[in-house]
Amino acid sequence: MNKYLMDLRKGKVKYLMIEEHIKNLIDKNKIKDGEKLPAIRELARILKVNNITIVNAYKELQSKGYAVLKMGSGTYAKKRDINRNLNREYSRALKRIFSNEIGDYIDFTGETSSGEFFQIDLFKNVLNEVLDRDGSRALIYQEPLGYEGLRKSISDVFWKDSVNPEDILIVSGAQQGIDVVSKAILNTDDSVIVEKPTYSGALSVFKSRRSEIIEIPVEKNGVNVDKLEKILQKNNIKCFYTMSYFQNPSGISYDDDKKKQILRLAEIYNFYIIEDDYLSELIYDSNIKYNSFKSLDHNDRVIYIKSFSKIFLPGIRIGYLIPPEKFRENIQNSKINTDIATSSLMQRALDLYIRKGMWKDYINMLNIKYKDMYIYMGKCIVKYLNDKVDFTKPGGGLHFYLKIKDSIEIDSISLFKEAKRRGVLITPGSLYYKNPSEGKKYFKIGFSHVSKENIKRGIQILNSLMTI
Amino acid sequence: MNKYLMDLRKGKVKYLMIEEHIKNLIDKNKIKDGEKLPAIRELARILKVNNITIVNAYKELQSKGYAVLKMGSGTYAKKRDINRNLNREYSRALKRIFSNEIGDYIDFTGETSSGEFFQIDLFKNVLNEVLDRDGSRALIYQEPLGYEGLRKSISDVFWKDSVNPEDILIVSGAQQGIDVVSKAILNTDDSVIVEKPTYSGALSVFKSRRSEIIEIPVEKNGVNVDKLEKILQKNNIKCFYTMSYFQNPSGISYDDDKKKQILRLAEIYNFYIIEDDYLSELIYDSNIKYNSFKSLDHNDRVIYIKSFSKIFLPGIRIGYLIPPEKFRENIQNSKINTDIATSSLMQRALDLYIRKGMWKDYINMLNIKYKDMYIYMGKCIVKYLNDKVDFTKPGGGLHFYLKIKDSIEIDSISLFKEAKRRGVLITPGSLYYKNPSEGKKYFKIGFSHVSKENIKRGIQILNSLMTI
Question: Which of A138, A232, B177, B189 could form a disulfide with B305 if both were Cys (CB 3.0 to 4.6 A apart)?
Answer without folding.
Answer: B177
